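FIELD: query
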Amino acid sequence: MGNIGGIIKTIRNLMRGDRGINGDAQRIEQLGWLLFLKIFDDKDIEMEMLDENYQSPIPIEFQWRSWAADDEGITGDELYNFIDYKMFPALKNLPSASTDQRAFLIKEVFEGNNNYMKSGTIIRQVVNKLNEIDFNSSDDRHVFGDIYEGILKELQSAGDSGEFYTPRAITGFIAEMVNPKLGEQILDPACGTGGFLTEAIEHIRKNEVTNISHRKTLQHSIKGIELKPLPYMLAITNLILHDVEIPNIYYDDALSRELTSITQKDRVDCILANPPFGGNVTDGMETNFPMNFRTRESADLFLILMIQYLKTGGRAGIVLPDGSLTGDGVKQRIRRKLLDDCNLHTIIRLPNSVFQPYASVATNLLFFEKGNPTKEVWYYEHKLPEGQKSYSKTKPIRIEEFDPIRKWWTNREENELSWKVDIKTIQKNGYNLDIKNPHKVEEEEIRSSSELLDMLHTSFAKSDELLAKLKSELSID
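FIELD: result
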């Protein structure tokens, strides 16, 4: 582990010396396409050994082994010019008429990403370091999987790129509870770097995959959609690392499809997702939805989209912010549709800081099954570990914290952290799902009357001060 960790650390430090790289997000994008090409070539070599007729979709001169694998290979301006003026244009313009899906993947990846590095000498040093990792060695690949997680995690603090990463504890718990099976179709319509999809793959592999035919079935069961080029590329690389030869990830906005065009042939058995929230959708996307569900809030539109994508009997485990659980108008109509069309059986309420430092919004895990209306919703309040004030980059949420919920899941009883609410109560309250723990005594200090008077006095003083300030600003000389 230390070795691969050390390699990545060295690469990071080398990249810092290149004037073309500005900040973490660019560094990760640069490392992303380099890794993609190396992993792709390692896979090509493996496939050539298994099938003598196999031919890589990457033209020979641009294959990693041709220009990067030799430590004494081209460097300096020659390498920079080769990458910028030959390789990138060639890979962006791979013949799109080709029926080879792998060629299409490469084209999509290189259309969406950039070579930021300006020093061919530093690029050569980075490439030589990457050559120390062998992705066809299962040990290296397994260890690299963990390192790769670390790289993805860094995205959390790389400007606004943090939205691409969902903590592994959450992706793992959702995959376990939704329990996808071999042969079921699995979708993440906002798949980011592929965290939910790789958890689903590992969950099925661990429980059911015993031969090559199973592996093929699994590879064809996984589908993702991602709008942004960097996470799209990282998701593809992530899936290739998890033995999916041709990742079925679409470089697209899932909301750009008319809702009514999603019919039975598109429907899936399982959805695992953390749709984007807090942002507005791209202009005009809401018109793909029926009039009574149109909103600019992305999380709410994604909820409608996911209900549409589920087969009858299909299951979902998703992350939603508090804002989607409450509110009137469209928000209320969307929640009503969820409760009418699906059995929303469980809501896990998470502490505010799960997505720190990217967002401090309070979030929830919703689990539902399509086909029967909801009769009652079980809630479980997930608590921060004893003595911890919040989650952070150095103290993220851990998978073990879900142990009590796992135990409770199959044998549900009300306790100080869990309660259930019947549908009549929810309907009476305007389909509001933001229901606080009824067993929790409000943690307000009991104050003496003199303390209350002091507080009131301070409050009045502040109001007077503000009024005086306002008056002086408005007064005309």
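FIELD: remark
The domain at 2-137 is CATH 1.20.1260.30 (Ferritin).
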